[in-house]
Amino acid sequence: MICSVPVSGLSEAGSSGAKDKTKKPGRYNIIGMDPTKQFLLHIATGAELEKDTRIRKSILRAVGQMDIRADLMDAHMYAFNRSVLQEVLDQKDKFQSLKQDVLPYLVRSQLKSEILINGAPQGQQAKENGNDKVSYRILANASTPSFHELYALGPNGSAPVRRTHKCCVYIASNSKYCVRLNSIQAFMDINRDVIGEANHLSGYNFSAQNNIIHPSAELGSKTTVGPHCMLGEGSQMGDKCSVKRSVIGRHCRIGSNVKVVNSVVMNHVTIGDGCSIQGSVICSNAQLQERVALKDCQVGLGYVVSAGCEYKGESLARKEK
């Protein structure tokens, strides 16, 4: 599946550390499709884009023309025929990545088919004769409705042909929400989308203040929740709190005089009085004691931040035993 590149561009996948807080220049995909936009003929990603893009002549001969797109990205969702995938993995035991190894290989090899002789692949017969080379013929049949469509016999009418596989492509409609969640930055962007342009995904209706506050949530005196914010089920906030452009999950306990800006607070989080949180992600069951100040930080599951601590650009998590 491929989809449109987000307006904000691509963020490269990175570690869960705080260095991920800033957007990095996205590396776009170069994607080639047949004129019907049903088949994937070429894909270049990552370091490949730093070089000249080369298209195999055999592919162009087969399809006649190719639609090259730079405004689409690989959505990292793949559906395989089990036998095809297993055959590739059996033959290519050094393959480690679907995206970097398997998919490019399948795209490159989809126009190769073995020539059958007496019902057996020519390659198999060559091996039986002591020759390890497998003979292939590039199918170049641009005149057919689909370039993958094969005739029962080869062009000379002598040898039946067996196609190996097709690489089909599905383009997600622009009316659908499709993004890759592979970095902290992407996680933040998606949460902002859910309380912004993609608010229909939340399942809730926006209030007159253009925010989402669950009916069971409780707000203290002089506490404000700004536009494009979400306060989840059963969460409580004390007096004189301020929430801007942030998502707060379910059953959170937030004290008084707390500021939350451009942040994501997950479920069952406890935040003490006088805390300030900016550009940060607070995972479920974390505890922030009184007067904690965080900027561009990630706080891990169940982590306790001691009272009065100040952190900037840090990743805070419990050490694994």
Helices and strands in order, then pairings?
Blueprint: E1 2-4, E2 30-33, E3 40-44, H1 57-63, E4 67-69, E5 72-74, H2 82-91, H3 98-109, E6 112-117, E7 120-121, H4 122-128, E8 136-138, E9 161-163, H5 184-194, E10 212-213, E11 218-219, E12 224-225, E13 230-231, E14 236-237, E15 242-244, E16 247-248, E17 253-254, E18 259-261, E19 264-265, E20 270-271, E21 276-278, E22 281-282, E23 287-288, E24 293-295, E25 298-299, E26 304-305, E27 310-312, E28 315-316
What does this structure look like?
- It is a single chain.
- The chain is 15% helix and 23% strand.
- With 321 residues, it is of the alpha/beta class.
- Strands 10-13-16-19-22-25-28 form a 7-stranded parallel β-sheet. Strands 11-14-17-20-23-26 form a 6-stranded parallel β-sheet, with no helix packed on it. Strands 12-15-18-21-24-27 form a 6-stranded parallel β-sheet, with no helix packed on it.
- The radius of gyration is 27 Å and the shape is elongated.
- It starts with a strand and ends in a 5-residue tail after the last strand.
- This is NTP transferase domain-containing protein.
- It comes from Citrus sinensis (Sweet orange).
- Keywords: Transferase.
